[in-house]
Design a protein that fits this description.
Structural class: mainly alpha
Number of domains: 1
Distance between the termini: 36 Å
Number of strands: 0
Helix content: over 70%
Order of helices and strands: HHHHHHHHHHHHHHHHH
Oligomer: single chain
Shape: globular
């Protein structure tokens, strides 16, 4: 274990270079994931708008899966990285083992859930039998085989927690490539394979995730010396579980609130026209190209901040925070310009109907105004999580989704004008940023990063 006793790069490399080298692989892999999501929907859209709607309406359930897998990962990342900064290597291994156990249990719960609720979930939203049939098949496969997603996420988070983001991108990109290759083959029945239509997209997703998980765990075993994976450590540990979920549960609840918000928005929008829900689905696919780089940078930010806070390097924490904030705002400004200037081109990817093109163009231009504001909120929320204040992040995210955005969308829908509903995104972001800025100042002050240091 000699090589783990030397200082990790998160404690010594210049912050600008560190943030770039750690985030660049994650940004690249997440952009690739975003590209895969668009390709996936592009092939499905060629079947029909009903097929596109079926996949779009599944987004809240997919968000729920990401909520638990990603939230658990956030807890593991911050807790493990902080222990690494404190040079407590035995604890690092116990956190890794407990984290794997938690992922297994959660994946099993989702597998059962996916098989039981897929049909009722779609019937609650629409009476269109084609959408129900497509959607039930899609969700039953993706969620019923949730072990693939959770295994992939677990293996990647362990690599990210020790700063090996360059390795974490390998399973991400490989899984996405396999998924994109298998999509048209299974959707349209090429090369002798059966034509599975929307179900084919789900099967392709599971195949890609499964292969990515195998690669991810292989890299952890062979190339991640700071974590020693052992079957004897893959078991429940009450204290470590509490530590993981003290940080992770707020992240889970934040994303659950986002899932509820998306479900509510779909219900509101489908009352106007099915093209509106398809437009929202298309928005989330294209939007991911803008938000994914910021999320990738945040995945690097959390272990860097947690490690240096654990090591007492407060100047490095502040530099990481300010550099991340500036970069995120710049990325989001570029995104706003794209959505404002070429919305028709962006929507053209999905071979839209005339109605979808008209509705989607207006939606893209109205929603994109909030992107730069969202950048500040996203980075601030991650900083609070990394510095041990997950409740601040939780309050802000839940208020944004369920107190500000969704109610305003409902109230604006009462005007009978679809365009008005899209303004709820800006209303939710402006209201929530006030909360998170207050919370972030308090977090900085309590950690001795702002004003007079405590003690």
């Amino acid at each position: 274990m000699e090589n783990t006793l030397s200082e990790n790069k998160m404690g010594v490399m210049p912050i600008g270079k560190l943030l770039f080298t750690m985030s660049a692989p994650m940004v690249a892999s997440m952009l690739f994931q975003a590209f895969y999501n668009i390709v996936d929907s592009m092939f499905v859209a060629r079947l029909s708008q009903d097929a596109m709607n079926a996949v779009s309406l599944a987004f809240p359930i997919h968000t729920l899966e990401i909520a638990f897998s990603g939230g658990t990962g956030v807890g593991i990342n911050a807790y493990l990285s902080r222990s690494l900064g404190e040079k407590d290597y035995d604890k690092v291994n116990r956190i890794a083992g407990t984290g794997i156990f938690l992922y297994i249990c959660t994946a099993f719960a989702f597998a059962v859930l996916g098989l039981l609720v897929a049909g009722p979930y779609y019937r609650f939203q629409t009476m269109n039998e084609t959408i129900v049939r497509y959607g039930t098949a899609y969700v039953s496969i993706c969620t019923g085989l949730a072990f693939a997603l959770f295994a992939q996420m677990c293996s990647e988070r362990l690599l990210q927690a020790t700063g090996r983001t360059n390795l974490a991108m390998i399973p991400q990109i490989t899984g996405a490539v396999i998924n994109m290759i298998m999509d048209p083959i299974l959707i349209f029945g090429l090369f002798g394979f059966p034509r599975l239509e929307v179900a084919g997209a789900a099967v392709a997703t599971v195949i890609g995730q499964s292969i990515a998980a195998v690669i991810g765990f292989t890299l952890n075993i062979r190339r991640n010396p700071e974590i020693r994976l052992s079957g004897s450590l893959i078991r429940p540990n009450r204290k470590i579980t509490a530590g993981i979920y003290r940080i992770g549960v707020p992240s889970i609840i934040m994303q659950i609130s986002g899932s509820v918000m998306n479900f509510g928005l779909n219900k509101i929008l489908i009352g106007f026209t099915e093209a509106a829900t398809a437009a929202l689905g298309a928005y989330y696919k294209i939007q991911s190209f803008i938000f994914m780089p910021v999320m990738g940078m945040n995945n690097a930010l959390v272990p860097i901040v947690a490690y240096n806070l654990g090591a007492g390097n407060k100047d490095r924490v502040k530099k990481t925070a300010f550099l991340s904030m500036g970069a995120a705002v710049c990325i989001m400004i570029i995104g706003t310009l794209l959505f404002e200037l070429i919305p028709e081109t962006l929507l053209g990817i999905f071979t839209p109907s005339e109605e979808l093109l008209r509705v989607g163009t207006r939606a893209f231009r109205i929603i994109a105004v909030h992107f730069p504001v969202a950048a500040i909120s996203i980075v601030s929320i991650s900083l609070c999580q990394a510095m041990g204040k997950p409740m601040f992040a939780l309050i802000t995210s839940v208020c944004r989704s369920l107190v500000f955005l969704l109610p305003s969308a409902y109230l604006l829908s009462l005007t009978g004008v679809l365009d008005n509903v899209w303004y709820s995104f800006l209303i939710g972001e402006l209201a929530s940023i006030i909360l998170i800025v207050i919370f972030l100042r308090k977090t900085f002050r309590e950690n001795g990063l702002l004003g007079k240091q405590p003690g």
